[in-house]
Design brief:
The protein is α/β, with parallel strands linked by helices and 358 residues long. The protein is 40% helix and 17% strand. It has two domains: 105 residues, Alpha-Beta Complex (Aspartate Aminotransferase, domain 1), CATH 3.90.1150; 243 residues, 3-Layer(aba) Sandwich (Aspartate Aminotransferase, domain 2), CATH 3.40.640.
Length: 358
């Protein structure tokens, strides 16, 4: 029986992506690799219609967190200052990255799952004219909340502050208006909404914005300017994960053929709505209303008569892997993601499995 992964990455692979992993062994210094790398970079920009002369997709071997760290450490000048908006684990992770690297930063904290207070954001920026950047998570998978970047972008534009976005759990399935929202960079990964495998992440960055930090290098391995110079010249500074590149290249072709991010979002919502309605019928409540949630992942309250371990283990025996809540949420929540090569029939079987456990 195929195990259905309802966790937020890695995902169930389509057969064509799985077969791509069996392509021939390849040296990352050969022209065939360079051609594949450029193909991936172009395809990533096409997802949101970004022109190559203004934007670059920079590929890194590492998890989504490596892309977050590369974006934060590479896009802020030596005298820059970043305001990190926190309303979950991944906003807090951005703050930790800034602190570890000794970057000038401040945190705008909210409770986990809370709505970002735009009024507080405005006050922070007005009281400290030293801020040059705001960093924010688009889809905060701690709670499943989709933070409204358009309202944050309006404030950033008013104060002439640049916006850096963690799009790790939204890129490829949620709307991202790079130009309209004044985004300077977005970190993301292959193994979530793009349906690739773990091992490759990337940053979509405005070339003009990155040129402002050419004279500063905070890290060796994660310096985006180093990657950009070499990838623009068909090279790579370090050994890349060739097999995960094969998978991502094929997954991007599949993504485009299926209809792009819009179709993927529609498909995710179809499956997520079936989960929300089915669990509601079983008296299992969603943490957030639909209008505040991402199509990618939603959080649900644990039923009164079942703890997470029992729910997880019982569903795994039936072929489904769910995800725990984080931190204090571990006591009260479980999470369901609908990414990957899964079907409506899989979701119906999942709901039957939950019904059986209850």
């Amino acid at each position: 029986m195929r195990e259905i992964l309802l966790n937020p990455g890695p995902v169930n692979l389509s057969e064509r992506v799985r077969q791509a992993l069996l392509k021939p062994d390849l040296c990352h210094r050969e022209p065939e690799f360079a051609a594949m790398q450029q193909s991936i970079r172009r395809q990533l920009l096409r997802i949101y219609g970004l022109p190559e002369q203004d934007w670059a997709a920079i590929l890194i071997t590492g998890s989504g967190t490596s892309a977050m760290e590369a974006m934060l450490t590479s896009c802020i000048p030596a005298r820059g200052k970043v305001l990190v908006i926190e309303n979950g684990v991944y906003g807090e992770r951005l703050s930790r990255i800034a602190a570890i690297h000794g970057m000038d930063h401040a945190c705008l904290r909210h409770e986990w799952g809370g709505v970002i207070d735009v009024g507080r954001l405005e006050r922070c920026l007005s009281e400290d004219p030293g801020f040059t950047h705001v960093a924010v998570v688009h889809h905060e998978t701690t709670s499943g909340r989709l933070n409204r970047l358009e309202t944050i972008a309006e404030v950033c534009a008013r104060f002439r502050v640049n916006m850096l976005v963690d799009g790790v759990s939204s890129f490829g399935a949620e709307e991202l208006r790079f130009e309209d929202w004044g985004m300077h960079a977005c970190a993301a990964t292959a193994n979530k909404c793009l349906h690739g495998i773990p091992g490759t992440s990337f940053v979509i960055v405005k070339r003009a914005a990155l040129r402002r930090t050419e004279d500063i290098q905070r890290t060796l391995y994660l310096d985006l300017n180093t990657y950009l110079r070499q990838q623009d010249q068909n090279g790579t500074p370090f050994t890349q994960s060739v097999q995960s590149f094969y998978a991502l290249d094929e997954a991007l072709r599949e993504h485009a053929e299926d209809g792009g991010w819009q179709t993927r979002r529609t498909d995710y919502w179809r499956k997520m709505d079936s989960v929300r309605h089915g669990l509601a019928d079983l008296k299992i409540e969603a943490l957030l209303p639909r209008e505040d949630s991402s199509c990618v992942l939603n959080a649900f309250r644990l039923p009164n008569n079942l703890d997470y371990a029992s729910l997880h283990d019982g569903l795994k025996q039936r072929g489904f892997v769910i995800y725990a809540g984080q931190g204090e949420f571990a006591k009260t929540l479980f999470r369901i993601s609908v990414m990957g090569s899964i079907t409506m029939t899989d979701m119906e079987r999942f709901l039957e499995a939950v019904r059986g456990l209850l």
